[in-house]
UniProtKB/TrEMBL annotation:
Residue ranges occupied by any F-box/LRR-repeat protein 15-like leucin rich repeat domain in the UniProt entry: 95-263
Coiled-coil residue spans: none
Organism: Medicago truncatula
Pfam families: DUF7885 (PF25372), LRR_6 (PF13516)
Protein name: Putative leucine-rich repeat domain, L domain-containing protein
SMART domains according to UniProt: LRR_CC
Length: 281
């Protein structure tokens, strides 16, 4: 057999490869530690994954990274992964969500080793459900829930409270900015968070101020398309986040050229600023 030391496999848009072929190959390499099968034509056409493919995944006892983006993941697959007790540290399930809250909740409640989780566009998620999931994610280092448009301020601060090791949060196109912010959360500082992407969300100055107080070690902040953020909110971030290096304000319509021009003076640590359109520095 070839490539007997193979540990990582990445397949994208492989239209002529079937589940059976992949399953057969996986069985020949049970020592794989990383598998990425994304935008899989057969899965999209069936709107399901076959049992042979699921069985082959369960045989990968050393698997730490699994990416099945756009592959019609089902609850059945998540239940099987739960039973297999694989040592997963990274799971990516973005796009074409066929699984439900029941399936992902079952898996996350048992797989406490996860450090990186990507469940973009899981439309069934709301604040109440997400807050429950956060209790299972104490070792999480990065999370991407972009496109989960029912998530609000409550979901964000639940992450801060339950996941003290987080260094990266991506919540693009969510409803962060909506809802109240409990005073207890504002006083909660997450010293490790460095990357925060809130682009195209409903974040406003009030929520931005609370976030900047809770996350003073931010290095990268993306606010692209955040139409409710004003100059006041930007100044509050610059005042609290003293290590900030990158700031994206593209399409922030309420931020003026004068504010952008003063940013370097207000926060000398800045190395890159993406300014709102039609502004000249």
């Amino acid at each position: 057999m070839n490539c007997k030391f193979l540990q990582e496999v990445l397949m994208f848009n492989c239209r002529s490869i079937t589940h059976a072929v992949i399953a057969s190959a996986i069985c020949q390499r049970p020592s794989l530690s990383s598998l990425s099968v994304t935008d899989f034509k057969e899965a999209r056409e069936r709107e399901n994954v076959t049992s042979c493919f699921i069985d082959s995944l369960m045989s990968l006892k050393r698997l730490t990274c699994l990416d099945l983006s756009y592959s019609c993941i089902t609850d059945s697959l998540l239940y099987s992964l739960t039973l297999a007790a694989l040592p997963l540290r990274k799971l990516v399930l973005q796009g074409r969500c066929q699984y439900t809250y029941t399936g992902i909740s079952c898996f996350l409640s048992k797989c406490r080793s996860l450090q990186h989780l990507d469940i973009q566009r899981a439309k069934f998620l709301n604040d109440r459900r997400f807050n429950v999931l956060c209790a299972f994610l104490g070792d999480l280092v990065s999370i991407n829930v972009s496109g989960c448009d029912k998530l609000t301020n409550s979901a964000f601060f639940a992450l801060l409270r339950n996941c003290p090791l987080l260094t990266e949060i991506r919540m693009e196109s969510t409803n962060i900015g909506v809802g109240s912010i409990p005073s207890a959360y504002v006083a909660f500082e997450v010293s490790k968070l460095e990357v925060l992407n809130l682009s195209d969300s409903r974040i406003d100055d009030g929520a931005l101020y609370a976030i900047s107080k809770s996350c003073p070690r931010l290095l990268h902040l993306d606010l692209e398309g955040c139409h409710h953020v004003t100059e006041k909110g930007v100044r509050l971030v610059l005042d609290k986040c003293i290590h900030l290096r990158e700031l994206n304000l593209e399409y922030c319509r309420k931020v003026s050229a004068d504010t952008v021009a003063k940013m370097i003076l207000l926060r000398p640590s800045l190395r890159e600023i993406i300014a709102p359109p039609l502004l000249s520095l």
